[in-house]
Amino acid sequence: HELGWLTVLLMDAVVESTAEFDPYKVLGVTRSASQAEIKKVYKRLAKEWHPDKNKNPEAEDMFIKITKSYEILTNEEKRASYDRYGQTDNTHPYGRGHHGFRHFHDNFYFDESFFHFPFNNKGGRDFADSKYTLHFNQYISEVVPDSFKRPYLIKITSDWCFSCIHIEPVWKETVQELETLGIGIGVVDVGYERRLANNLGAHQTPSILGVVNGKVSFFHYAVVKGHLMQFIEDLLPQRLVEKVTDKNNQEFLKSWHELNKPHVLLFDQVPSVPLLYKLTAFAYKDYVQFGYVDQGLSETADLLRKFNINTYAPTMLVFKEDVEKPADIIQAKGMKKQIIDEFISNNKFLLAPRLVNQKLFDELCPVKQFHRRRKYCVLLITGEEESFATGNEAFLSLASANTNDVLRFAYVYQRRQQPLCDVLLKNKDSTLPQVVILERRNGAGKILYKPVSGGWNGSKEDKHKLLEELERLQKDPSILNNDAVLPELNNEFTSMFLIRWIYTAYDYLAEIIDDLLHNNWREVMPLLSLIFSALFILFGTVVIQAFSDSSEEKQPKTKAKEASKAENGSPNTSSTSRFFLVLDITYTSNLVKLRPGHINVVLVLTDPTKNILLSKFAKEVYSFTGSFTLHFSFLNVDKHGEWMAAVLEYAQDAMQIDTDEDEAGSRKLDYTGYVLALNGHKKYLCLFKPVYTGEDLDSKPEEEGGGSRSRKGTTRSRSTTLQIHHKLDRLGLWMERLMEGTLPRYYVPAWPGLDKITVNK
Question: Which first-to-last residue range defines the signal peptide (predicted)?
Fold first, then answer.
């Protein structure tokens, strides 16, 4: 029962709201009102009821009604539907149209326009924006490439966006004017094109952004027409149009030869360059150089008199090779984009341009498509030296007199386009300059051509001969009896890449600064994060490397020098001892304060055995020197025998072998050839004892502590006959077990001092 009453109330509200809404009454115009009258009234009411200016609580609702009424009455289909049926597809609640309606239990219809929210839905408020709707693939394949010829203004919108409604009147008015200037317009609905919105970096609605040369820039100011127009102008690269006066006009016009472009001068009375002219300069920047003359300046009076300029209307002059006489002229009070485009398109090339890259060659001498669209290229192969000037000027005069659209005149410098010239002059004894008539057959470079015999020096005979050949060509194209495949032309303007890169970097830096000034952190943060992350990683790596390598790289070099001074060895010991540290000099850093995980392998020797043992030691441990955790040193037992005895006394297990000798006390222990693996941090050692392998073949060595030893008494009895270098024969195997971690470890409570030994027995 309650549901029935709710249904009736909703139905009554829908009918009442629909009946009350009359776009003519809202705007206060008659049914016969013209579009101009409706527009005039709308501007007045929109200004009066704009929520930002009108504090009336009903201002927002009234502004929405005014906007919706304007959209209906300015759209012919919607207005006709309302006049005929009293409703449009978006306002009637029970029509047969399917837009905006959803079923409820198969017998109740809910109209989405019931609440009068004119948000972006299909067939809703965005009817006027529908033709500008952008999709991701369309943006990538069409908008981005086209943005290198004209800027794009894109609006980011979404459903249920009140702010989008507020900017709608300004947006429509601005778009209407920008379209006449040739600016691309786009609308992205975040609800349907989230991927494109993320690609553009748009994270809020409404947002307005511009795209030029594939680069996205965001609009940060109040949404008014003047700001949007200025935003478009700021998007364009700098230096598109040069200000020309009486002082620099000759320099500007004479640069045609260096730039290989026609030059266009616009004369107008406004002090700043018109936006339409800047947009034209941007669209044709690869073909034409643009200049602007302010007629209101006294510095331009001579130019106005020289070219007899009418100051009452904008005038456009195009100059080609002749800087004193314009090649074409146009003058009109209402200079429209279509007129300017046609004017520039007809004057994109010089009368006889130089072929400086493949792109120019493709446009000037296109590939033959149909018989009626044949284009023949008359090409002069010449040089840059002064001696060729006469022939070049004669060729230019002939090109200036040409009125046949089928013929295109051009020239190349042999030195700059050597591969091309080598093909055209192949097997020809003719010297420069040389004229070649050619026709391109396909995009792969195949041509038909015919060199004009006799070369070219610009004489009357040469001109007459060339004109005869061209006349024959019109009647019989088969006279082009040579074929060849041309290589791609060299780009002569590659040297300008650095300048363009600097300009691009400058524009990009200016954009970053602009984003920072407007606190547009959401767009700048990814870039700043990347920069700071790279700097942090680089700085951290350098610092860590400096701390980790300082003791490994600097100390060995210093100690090795000191070792060479302290020890008096033969010259051949210097090459082996450079691998090791001298323990008595680097005791603290290489044992007591050795870093965790690092081991110092110490060879015990005496002065007489030093040279032999170090050489043998170097050979045995050479394959292990690549490890960063191993350090190699030697200890002179003649100087530090007490230290050796103190360390081994801590390791009682290692000394069991010599118990009988200790008790007898008859002689001093011989530690020559012992090797200690010292872990300074964990305070343990591994012991290698010398091995006899040279004389007593019947004796069977025993291993202990990772090394091997002879039976008791063998070492003592044979010490006089044992060759010293044989003591380290098994050291390589012991090193392998050390690396595996399978050697017995002897722990010490503390490392004894090197100079003063105090042992607590």
Answer: 1-17
